[in-house]
Specification:
- Helices cover about 80% and strands about 0% of the residues.
- The protein is globular and about 50 Å long.
- It has one domain.
- It has six helices and no strands.
- With about 160 residues, it is mainly α.
Length: about 160
């Protein structure tokens, strides 16, 4: 529970954004993305597959944008351009990300969408918006998640 509260604090505390803070926040965003993408991989039967595909596309592309445009260049710069060392750092980051995803899974034991998940992902998009087409895809994904929250309220299997 403490890990979850810490991750929420890190995601929602969007005041100053130095390079290190941005890297940390985007790392947390990737944890949220991995968590939601995991839920999409094994969705409740009530969810419409076409809507899930729409959501998955936007979230996967946003996650790829975070990795290739923010995290990879930052890590590579921090290790002086040493690609082998950057790969080792990425492995460690992935291990830590898995712990955060586990914490989210503990907090959200059901694999249906929650409004605060949508809000966390929205905050991520506002923190470091992808280019226009990617931003539109992310917006459509989040809007679709909200639509699904309205169509399939929790407990209405």
């Amino acid at each position: 529970m403490k890990k979850f509260i810490l991750s929420l604090f890190l995601v929602f505390n969007v005041q100053q954004t130095t390079a290190t803070e941005l890297l940390n926040k985007m790392f947390i965003c990737q944890s949220w993305l991995d968590f939601v993408e995991g839920n999409i991989a094994s969705p409740p039967p009530k969810y419409d597959k076409k809507r899930l595909t729409l959501i998955r596309t936007g979230l996967e592309n946003f996650n790829r944008y975070i990795q290739t445009e923010i995290i990879d260049p930052d890590v590579l710069a921090r290790v002086g351009g040493d690609k082998a060392l950057a790969n080792q750092v990425q492995v460690k980051l992935d291990e830590k990300k898995a712990l955060l995803v586990d914490s989210l899974e503990d907090h959200y034991p059901h694999n249906d969408f929650k409004f605060d998940q949508v809000m966390a992902l929205n905050d991520c998009g506002l923190l470091s918006p992808p280019p226009a087409a990617g931003f539109d895809e992310l917006r459509v994904s989040l809007d679709t998640m909200i639509d699904m929250l309205n169509i399939y309220p929790r407990g209405m299997d």
